[in-house]
Amino acid sequence: MKEFGCLPDSFSYNTILDVLCKKGKLNEARDWLLEMKNKSLMPNSSAFNILVGAYCKLGWLKGASQIIELMWENNVLPDVYTYTILIDRLCKEGRIDEALRLRDEMENLKLLPDVVTYTALINGCFECSSSAKAIELIQEMERKGVKPDAVIQNILVSWYVKDGNVDDARKTIRKMEETGVSFNTASYNTILDALCKKEKLNEAQDLLLDMKNKGLMPDSCSFNILVCGYCKLGLLKEASEVIELMSQSNVLQDVWTYNILIGGLCKQGRIDEAFRLQDEMKTLKLLPNVVTYNTLINGCFEYGSSSKAFGLIQEMESKGMKPDAFTHSIVVKWYVKNGKMNDARKTIRNMEESGFSSNIVCYNIILDVLCKKGRLNEAKDLLLKMINKGLMPDWCTFNIFVCGYCKWGWLTGAAQVIELMSQNNVLPDVCTYTMLIGGLCKEGRIDEAFRLRDEMENLKLLPDVVTYNTLINGCFECGSSSKAFGLIQEMERKGLKPDAFTHQLLIKWYLKDWKMDDAEKTIRKMEESGFSPDPAAYNTLINKYCKIGKLGEAFRMMDEMERKGLNVDNVNLNSIIHILFGENSFMPDVFTCNILLRMLCRRGMLEKALNLFNTWISKGEKVDAVAYNTIILGLCEQGRFEEAFDLLVEMKEKKLGPDCYTCNAILGILADAGRVEEAEECMSKIMKMGQLQDQNLLLDKWKIMSSQTPQVSDPNSIAFSE
Predict the structure, then answer these.
(1) Name one Pfam family in it (predicted).
(2) Under DSSP, is residue 711 helix (H, G, I), strand (E, B) or coil?
């Protein structure tokens, strides 16, 4: 510049400072700053701020503080920008208290924090889980006349969504829109994503339409979020409707859209349709990427088309597309699943020889199988080989070992793994502690399990429902029922709802202690909470009632199971039949006995059903048409038509029928079996009985001859019973 007769000014030096800082040459930048001073060209606040910003970007807060001291020495006052840079860095490092002290220092210097300062502080508070302080800062800035902008509102919306408060996020958007703040598509997409993850797809669809009504055009990301939500729930028809809406809105489908749909089809085993979608992509000039191929490869392996899967790997390689770590993990997983451990290891070796870095996921898959099979020494050797190759275990690797050691009762080994985790700066998580607690509970070491739970909480690791269930089960198994009930109350106080397994543990304990009333109450409570009781709970309850002679209660529970579509096990059926055939004064009513007959016939236990039917009659009990119909159908299904017809005659004599439903059922079974002549003969016999008119038979001669099966009414229906 001197050659051209002009001297560099502050702007020239600031430009060079900026370039040097962007390249990370901070020492040179500092020298330039001192050179400015030596040439009597006093650096301004912008020059100092460039250096402060560079030091903060690299996290060198000590260096940034030294530059600020230099500012004071040169009588250059730090401005709002200087303080905001420092505050932002402190917030990113989680040093919120220091950031807030700097904010106070600003105000003492009559420097008013602007919207950028508040943005840094608010975001920092949310990131450090100080949500109350963040809300307080928003209220403070509004009091001071600093209007929250879209960035702050987006931070607020994102936090609400992250915290699961989707309704509050939507209220925030409505409130801010009323005050004139415009939200962009990204904010709406954040809420759309949260709604879809919570499976509130109708609300998500309404929000999408709401966006359009407000003139805010949903982008491909908006539609893809909704498509993904439907596909995850297996609602592919609804996903296709969203894609149709996408086309109507002139938003083009992209590779992500197709990948989501292909994934949805593969999950349902509709591999051929997934391949057709891949072909459709090619016609639209959308090139399938590694994710597309991985999705198809995984789908083929899952549904038995391994040759197609390997063909896809060759296809992607022929197109210059390298299989990634996930591709290799899919192949390794398939080999392991099919017991081909040597091939799995060979795949990892080939991967490494081909220049791929070792993949922790692949190793974890093999380690998991070895640990589950109790081959712990072999797993340990593989772990050492892994470490020697420079591949460090992650928390998943360590948890696999903890789980393996606990499963096989080697708790000392599990404790050593925890120690190894600490040495490798890998923190144990809730899952790690829960597995250890489970191992201790299995050995009856309840007090140690509780101490581990306390240790978790001291490390700010909150026990989840699985942790509590593990402890509750351990307490019940060791006879500490009071502790178990105390844990249930504790988890409810902490806002954790007992799940299906918690209820099942309670039911199991009540039944073990012969507290049938309490077990039934827990079943009712379980249903009220939206869980389906395990059939085993009902069957155990029935078994207990039988053992203490409360057959009425047993039948009541059997009836309930029948209505809910749950199967009574054969042990209970046999127990009840044995009691009924013995010297027992109890005889069930018509309704209950019909349930028993139906259950026996459905299980193919016809002889026992006939014995019960005949015993019932021999004891002088009144039978109804439903009982006859059940036995008649059972006989027909086993080809015993003569006996069935004898019962038809007996029904007529007792004036219980038969009606057209009974007859159609018999004729239908004959027609299904292709026994046309016997069907005609049976129909002729029925007509001779004089009970039915020709027009009443739903199965006429033409239908028999053409082997068409009539619609047989359910023998349990009201009409059939009538």
Answers:
(1) PPR
(2) coil
Listing DSSP states for 15-42 in one string gives HHHHHHHHTT-HHHHHHHHHHHHHTT--
Q: Pick from 243, 281, 188: which is nearest to 235 by CA?
A: 243
486-527 pLDDT tens trace: 999 998 888 888 888 888 899 889 888 888 888 888 888 888
Q: CA 492 to CA 310: how far, in whole Å?
A: 50
Helical (H) or strand (E) element with 188 = helix 185-197
Domain edges within the chain: 649-722
Q: What is the rounded CA–CA span in Å between residue 23 and residue 564?
A: 71
Q: With beta carbons less than 8 A apart as the criterion, state whether 275 and 269 touch.
A: no
Query: Residue 151's closest CA among 164, 141, 166?
Result: 141
CA distances to 50, 52, 597, 630 from 18, rounded to whole Å, are 6, 11, 90, 91
Q: Tokens in use for 106?
A: 């600003």
DSSP 695: G
Which residue, chain included where needed, has tokens 């070992």? Answer: 401
> What share of residues in the chain are helix, strand, coil (percent, to 5)?
70, 0, 30
Q: Of 706, 621, 631, 630, which is closest to residue 672 (Cα–Cα)? A: 706
State the DSSP string of 298-322: HHHHHTT-HHHHHHHHHHHHHTT--
Can you tell me the distance from the alpha carbon of 158 to that of 408, in angstroms, rounded to the nearest whole number? 44
Instruction: Please list, residue by residue across 261-273, b when 16 or more beta carbons sit within 10 angstroms of its beta carbon and e when fewer do.
Output: bbbbbbbeebbeb
How far, in Å, CA of 157 to CA of 194, rounded?
11
Query: Which pair of structure tokens corresponds to residue 155?
Result: 């931070």
Q: Give tens-digit pLDDT for 587-604.
A: 566 776 777 788 778 777
CA distance 249 to 256: 18
Please report, in angstroms and rounded to a whole number, the separation of the first and last CA atoms in the chain: 110
532 DSSP 8-state letter: P
Please give the Cα distance from 9 to 98 (Å, whole number).
36
CA distance 516 to 541: 7
User: What secondary structure, in 3-state letters, does 538-589 show?
Assistant: HHHHHHHHHHCCCHHHHHHHHHHHHHCCCCCCHHHHHHHHHHHHCCCCCCCC
pLDDT digits (tens, 9 = 90+) for 390-445: 778 888 888 999 999 898 888 888 888 888 887 777 888 899 899 999 999 998 99
Confirm if 632 and 647 have CB atoms less than 8 A apart.
yes
Q: What is the dihedral of CA 394, 400, 405, 407, to 10 degrees?
A: 160
